[in-house]
Amino acid sequence: MLPLIRDGSEISYVPLPPDEIEPGDVIVLQGADRLVAHRLIRKEREGDGWRLLEKGDHQFLGTWISGEALLGRAVEVRAESKAVNLDTPALRLRIRALRAWSDMEYRATSAYVRVRDGGRGLKFIKYPFMMLGMFLLPIRWVVYRALISVYSSAGLDALDNWDAVLQLFRALQDEEPHLPADVPAIDGSADILRQTGPHGLTPLAAALFCDRPGTSPVPAEALSLMKQARYRIALTHMSAIKLVRSIAPEMAKAGIAYAVIKGPVLQESLYTDLFSRAYGDVDIVVSSRDIDRAVALLVKEGYEVVGGDLSNRLLRIGHFHLALDAPGKGTPRVELHWSILDRANLYRIGNDAVLERARTLTIEGVEIKTLSAEDEFVYLCVHIAKHAVMNGVGLRTGQTAEWFCRPATGNRLVWFCDVFLLLAKREDELDWEVVRRRIEEWNVRDEVAEVLAVLGLLRPDSAAGKDAISRLRSATEVPSGGLCRTDRFLGSKAGQRLVERLLPMNRTFLFRPVRLLSLGRLLFPSPDHLLCYHSAGKRWMLAVLYVWHPVHMLLKIMGVASAPGVRK
Question: What is the pLDDT of residues 2-11, one digit of tens each?
Answer without folding.
Answer: 778 876 677 8
